Amino acid sequence: MLEQIKSIKFKKQFAYFALAMLILSIIYILISVYITTLAYKTIINLPEISPKDYGLQYEEIEFQSSDNTELTLRGWWIPNKSKNTIIYLHGIDSNRAGHTSEQTIPPGLEVLSDMHSMGYSIFTFDLRGHGESDTAKVGLGIKEIADIKGAINYLESTKNVEKIALYGISYGAVLAILAGNSDEKIKGIFIDSPYNMITDLITGEIPRRTPIPGFIAGLLSQGIVWSSILLEGINLDEIRPYESIKVLSYPVLMVHCKDDKRIPIYHSDQINEHAPIDTLYHKFENCDGHGKAYESNKTYYLGFAKTYFNRIFQ
Predict the structure, then answer these.
(1) Rounded to whole angstroms, how far apart are CA atoms 242 and 11?
(2) Mind listing the pLDDT tens digit for each residue in 172-225?
(3) Which of 54, 122, 203, 212 has its CA at a distance of 20 to 30 angstroms from the CA of residue 162?
(4) Residue 61 belongs to what domain range?
């Protein structure tokens, strides 16, 4: 009789344990799906300034992404005497002008104006789902390569550009790496504060966008990978900037702030380990924020940029 009671008690305990595990698994899956859904959405911030505010002549441009003729992207063409052109790739939730909210990266038109003064033409546009471009889910680097190709196709067919450099910040920096080998006219990339592992970035963003605390967010990485494959057909584990940078045939210019908490500098350290020979990697001190290298020391930042652009455009 005693043995029967123990057996029944054990079965009940096992049933409670199994039920608890099932409930936890369901909660894990639901939160992972929720976070993944958020990751593919953007907060749309429209450009608040234009090149006119910096005394620059410009042209409003519309073109199509190379993978979808119904997806219209919008930007500004800022011509110069040189046909060598810098294409600016903004950060997540930002836009062609550089939005100045807490969650986005500010340099935008200010630094582009400085680069224009170096003699280069500038093309800056809103990525899909951002700014004034058509609404669409972000592709976390996979689909945006088609946006960059669409921009290059437009410039080649209408502006007779010669050589191209991609200049990206944060999310845009990773896009520059992924697209750096997509067209023979691309001769260099200047990347500011890139991330190396996108799951680290997403889990880091969770506490900023949701009530979920950071220690829980860190447990969701694999669930987010599975949810992304299931919902969007995109395997986040295949987005590997450190692998993409290996195949580039030219040196890269990379900068990152040592005190960057949003995307810690170890991301750039990892990317730099696989970067092409003669890559230039500069670490900025006392930036007080993500993507603030330009603001922390404009002289050094622009000096590095000028030296690099002169080198790749020669």
Answers:
(1) 50
(2) 999 999 999 888 899 999 999 999 887 777 776 666 666 777 667 667 777 777
(3) 54
(4) 53-196+240-312
